[in-house]
Structure formats: structure tokens, C-alpha cells
Hints:
There is one protein chain. By secondary structure, the protein is mainly alpha-helical. The protein contains 1 helix and no strands. Helix content is 84%, strand content 0%.
Amino acid sequence: MTNELLYAAYILVWPALTLGVLIVICAAVVRDIRKAKDSDQDLL
């Protein structure tokens, strides 16, 4: 039973990590867009 719980926790941790990375990337992109808009530059 302990192995099953550890395996389930191991599998369920990946969606949480993926969501965290996605939030960090999206926040960085939004920050870059705002910075480019404030300085009248293109994002690319």
C-alpha cells in the first residue's frame, strides 16, 4: 500500500510542476510585453 501511495504522489506531482512552469513562462511574457509597450518597442 505504501508503494501505491508513493507512486500516485509521484504521478500527481508532475501536473503541479508543469502548471508552475507554465505560470512562470506566462508571467515573463506578460512582463516583456508590458515593458516593450512602455518603451514603444516591438516585442520581437
